[in-house]
């Protein structure tokens, strides 16, 4: 039983860290998008490949008119990850921990 709880806790900690790393990757991608010369860099390409699946669903959301087209998709992706990390993950952990304990 103790091994199951320890493994379960470890899995959730890893998941929490992965979400945190993805948040920082999105922030780095947003900052690097301001520098047009960085787009040819292979590291930036890797960063784009990692964060594209998270950002792409939010790219349909457009705020402002034709003159003020600002891409807020990284912001919305960050909000979604923060909601998952702070609001959804802790109750799921608690519920599953109770199930394992019984």
Q: How would you portray this structure in words?
A:
The protein is mainly α and 102 residues long. The protein has one domain. 73% of the residues lie in helices and 0% in strands. It contains 3 helices and no strands. It has helices spanning 2-32, 42-55, 73-101. Helix 1 packs across helix 2 (42-55). The longest helix has 31 residues, at 2-32. It starts with a helix and ends with a helix. The model has no long low-confidence stretch (mean pLDDT 88).
The succession of helices and strands, N to C, reads: HHH
Q: What profile does the largest beta sheet have?
A: none
Query: How many domains in all?
Result: 1
Give the low-pLDDT segments.
Answer: none
Gyration radius from CA atoms, angstroms:
18 Å
> How much beta, percentage-wise?
under 5%
Gap between N and C termini, in Å? 10 Å
Q: What is the 3D shape?
A: elongated
Continuous helix count: 3
How many strand segments?
0
Helical content (DSSP H or I, runs of 4+): over 70%
* Mean of all residue-level pLDDT scores: 88
Structural class: mainly alpha
